[in-house]
Amino acid sequence: MADLLSLSTQIIDDGAAIFPVRINQELSEIDDGVAVVESFSNVIALATDEGLVLSDTSGALTGGAVVKSLRGWSNDPFHTILYTHGHIDHVGGAGAFVSDAADRGDRAPKFIGHENLPARFERYNATAGYNTLINTRQFSGAKKMGIGGEHRFLPESTPTPDVTFRDRLEVSVGGLQLDLHHAKGETDDHVWGWLPERRMILTGDLFMWNLPNAGNPQKVQRYPREWAAALREMSGLNAELLVPAHGFPIGGAERIRRVLDDTATALETLVNGTLEMMNAGEPLDAILHTVKISEELLAKPYLRALYDEPEFVIRNIWRLYGGWYDGNPSRLKPARDTALATEIAQLAGGVHALIERAEELSEAGEHRLACHLIEMAVLADPENKRAHGARAAIYTQRRSGETSLMAHGIFGFAARESEAKA
User: Fold this and answer.
1) CA 36 to CA 117: how far, in whole Å?
2) Which of 278, 380, 402, 422 has its Cβ near the most Cβ atoms within 10 Å?
3) What pLDDT is stored for residue 203 in this prediction?
4) Please, which contacts does 263-266 make with residues 24 or more away whose CB atoms are closer than 8 Å?
């Protein structure tokens, strides 16, 4: 067993260069009767007199390995399973836990989730093809993770919750008290847990060792202000143990307050700055290039923009409070992209002029402009092999300078798309 609390302390207190998020299916006991399996999402197990209470189930292709790790630690039945929210990496492995119970002759575990979660399941399956596509872009291989298909996104073995709640729910199992709280954040169905006798918080994805995933450009609305409020509420509990669904657990009240408050401050900075400029009548373009989180805060080992990034969060704040119109009237009812691209190519003197200028800009490090021009070149002449070759090279170069998984995934997908046509 790894000493996960020691590792997180080294990262936070000493700046140790240890990556805190791992997928190794290994179980570590972090307190008496408390274990964490590091997986696609962490699965946290709590021993009680009536069986195991679990937080999340990991993904479809990792749930079985998680069950195997747990069975090396405890033979107690799976009594209750909490879905912290409905994302596939948290609920997709549920079938493995149900199968284990059936194989052992135990009753099926009871599943708990927020009342919005069943509707999320329905939406996922209604948009199965789209969700599979965007996860392929984001993660460069959704099928490899057991995600999606043409007709169904969630595995058929994923049960809907037996118990749902709106705001708060007290759960008592075998001497364990677990207070569940709803909080909008990464999703509208997010739940976090507080175990008062253990002074322990189960954060789900409300804390995940990265800048919060509050701006994913391909996913539905996120709620950064409510997310920050939940973090502030957790911070006030004086917890001694924090266990997230991704990354190492954290011990120590002061350390926990610090990471929660810093994360809340990062979100509040973006929300307050964006709303101030919106109220002053500024367009989205100006806000994107003005509102910033301090470099000092972003340099914290638990706030680096390795998954999401501030620019994407600002767009989600604008979408939440201002709709989709970005303040540029030409984009209210725009021409087709291909029509605009063809017109620009004609004004520039042809597609080759756009390609050459895009390559010059890319070489000079002006990747944003380069991508605009090369997209126009490809839209104006979709069969142009030179345009696709340049597009592949430009997006590959741009990807190499990005930090977030979101940008890596989308730019990499664009590069591969053109490589196949060059």
Assistant:
1) 24
2) 380
3) 98
4) 263/207, 263/212, 263/228, 263/231, 263/302, 263/303, 264/228, 264/229, 264/231, 264/232, 264/235, 265/228, 265/297, 266/211, 266/212, 266/293, 266/297, 266/298, 266/303
- What average pLDDT does this structure show over 343-372? 98
The answer to whether the CB of 224 falls within 8 A of the CB of 316 is yes
Unique residue bearing structure tokens 């143990």: 241
DSSP secondary structure code for residue 185 in this structure: S
Q: What is the dihedral of CA 310, 315, 318, 323, to 10 degrees?
A: -170
Percent of the chain with pLDDT over 90: 92
* Distance, CA of 134 to CA of 145 (rounded, Å): 13
- Segments making up each domain of the chain, as ranges: 4-263, 335-419
What's the CATH class of domain 335-419? mainly alpha
Strand partners, 191: 182
So what's the pLDDT on residue 140?
65
Distance (Å, whole) CA 74 – CA 48: 11
Q: Residue 2: what pLDDT?
A: 76
| pLDDT of 417 | 95
Q: Is the pLDDT of residue 270 over 60?
A: yes
Evaluate if residue 150 carries a pLDDT over 80: no
Mean pLDDT of the chain: 95
Size (the chain), residues: 422
* Lookup result for tokens 């709590």: 46
Q: Which residues contact 306 (CB under 8 A, 6 or more apart)?
A: 210, 211, 403, 404, 405
Cβ neighbour number for residue 166 with a 10 Å cutoff? 9
- 224 residue type, one letter: P
Tokens of 282: 């500024």
Q: Which one is the CATH code of 4-263: 3.40.50.150, 2.40.400.10, 3.90.550.10, 3.60.15.30?
A: 3.60.15.30
Task: List pLDDT tens digits, range 27-74.
Answer: 999 999 999 999 999 999 999 999 999 999 999 999 999 999 999 999
Tally DSSP H helices, then E strands, for the chain: 16, 13
Could you give the CA distance from residue 62 to residue 72 in angstroms, rounded to a whole number? 16
How is the beta sheet containing 163-165 ordered, strand by strand?
27-31, 34-37, 43-48, 51-55, 78-82, 110-114, 163-165
Indicate if the pLDDT at residue 132 is higher than 90.
no
pTM over the 0.85 mark: yes
